[in-house]
Amino acid sequence: MKILVNGAWRETQREELAGALEELGYGGSVVSTAVNGEFIAAALRARTVLAEGDRVEVLAPMQGG
Amino acid sequence: MLQLYQMKVGSRLMLGTARYPSPAVLADAVRAARAEVVTVSLRRESAGERAGQAFWSLVRELGVRVLPNTAGCHAVKEAVTTAHMAREVFGTTWIKLEVIGEEDTLQPDVFGLVDAARILCAEGFEVFPYTTEDLVVAERLLAAGCKVLMPWGAPIGSGRGLNNLFGLTALRAHFPDVPLIIDAGLGVPSHAARALELGFDAVLINTAVAQARDPVKMAAAFALAVEAGLGARQAGPIEPRDLATPSTPLIGTAFRG
Questions:
Q1: ipTM of this predicted complex?
Q2: Tens digit of each residue's pLDDT (9 = 90 or more) over B178-223
Q3: Which residues contact B254 (CB under 8 A, 6 or more apart)?
């Protein structure tokens, strides 16, 4: 399945968000996620099922003013 | 001490964490500023680089309170979603709410700002809205549930200081009991001292420190300025006068009478 992760198309074999993040290399990272513009809490990632073409945002702490 | 929602803060100088020459300089600048609160943000994380993880480790080692922002958001929905994401990552209900309305000046979209503030306050966030000096907008933000306001001094990164002195002074006078933090546009320590002298409770500085030739030295200079401005405010400045009044007593002056 192809999903748009942080603006780039990525291929994942996993249907649930938690698994896709693990597969894409985000395992163990402090990140926050949104799917199609909706915030998905960490506790809900295992239950969130992705669909072809979903837009996934994976954000992490960054410098800010 | 300055009361910001449930927290008392000793330092009146808050520091942004962006645009420093290196993480080490950022850490030294935070220490030199004696800042207790620093602003942070959220950005897309690359699984390969994991830049965010390193930054977050650095901030945690500094032992300061973080104030996450919604920088870069231009719509209410974006800002609200970013606030939700920030609350989870940073583990705080504090949010520096920015809804940008205009690209050249990065002026806040105050209509969207009020809408987003209303939503977030109702959800239990402690909102620090980046706003203008507009009194009516300030009223609306307070009515939405904000207990702190962050009026701009001048456009972000411009270094122009307190652009609308009359408007800012009116804001201070109109809301004597609301913590007001000047956010954005200050360029040199005298701007910060002036803000505190006028009765503003704190300042947030980023570019002026981060982009200085010596950020650590500039951070220390801002810390001194803020201390001086607060001290002057507490000491009760004299009122400006148009004409001279002699400082040396005239009684007993030689060659008179």
A1: 0.90
A2: 999 999 999 999 999 999 999 999 999 999 999 999 999 999 999 9
A3: none
**B181: closest CA among B60, B57, B67, B47?**
B67
Name the pTM for this structure. Answer: 0.93
- Chain A residue numbers with beta carbons less than 8 Å from the beta carbon of B71 are 64-65
- Report in angstroms the alpha-carbon separations of B137 from B94, B115, B146: 20, 11, 12
B8 is a catalytic site residue: no
Contacts of B19 in chain A (CB under 8 A): 63, 65
Q: What is the pLDDT of residues A26-40, one digit of tens each?
A: 988 899 999 999 999
Q: How far apart are CA B164 and CA B151, in angstroms?
A: 11
Contact B35, B15 (CB under 8 A): yes
State whether residue B13 sits within 8 Å of chain A by CB.
no
Q: Does A8 touch chain B (CB under 8 A)?
A: no
Beta strands in chain A (DSSP E): 2-5, 8-11, 32-35, 38-40, 55-63
Inter-chain contacts counted by CB atoms under 8 A, chains A and B: 111
Cβ of A63 and B48 within 8 Å?
A: no
Q: Does B25 touch chain A (CB under 8 A)?
A: no
The two structure tokens encoding residue B129: 């809205």
